[in-house]
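User:
Note these tokens:
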Amino acid sequence: MNQLKQFIGFFLLVLWGSSNANTLSPQQQLEAFLKQTNSLSARFQQKLVDQYGYLLQQSAGTLKIQRPGHFRWDYILPYPQNIISNGKKIWMYDSELEQVNVRAYDQMLASSPISLLDRKQPLEKEFKVETLPADEGQQWLKLIPKQTDSDFREMQVGMKNGKIKTMRFIDNFNQQTQIEFEQMILNPPFDKAIFEFTAPEGTDVVGDF
């Protein structure tokens, strides 16, 4: 569950496409995404490696996002887990443990870049931005948070054909989470009911509804 908490901080930076992508720098493309994205859906493949490069975990699932503050991150593999927000509360539900952790949206995400989706601020306001060499057919940016209490030390964003293809999140223990996105759809309509959560009977609730 701690890994889920760390990860939700950067999953919103996942998609932007434009016919002018070739004329924009990677930073300009990313900033355009932050301004233009109101909702999105995608499939993802995720892996976690330790500081020595050893694979610790692999997972996959789907995500849905609706501005402002609404999202659901549904893990399908290796077992079901869900992270759901209605803009006020965040529920982190583990069906195997029959437990849900509930936190306030603002409190939980204060030190993570999820707030970028709502704020629409220039990247330099919250990050030190560096352009990295192209690799794996992608253009790369490195984002270093200016907040000293951030949940992560560094984020790397790989862009391909004007869209974000890969994100790498390096935490304060030098563990790295890599996400690759597939089947992305920009600005789809959603019923906001999917961003609410009701704990199944018998679920252990940690936090406050």
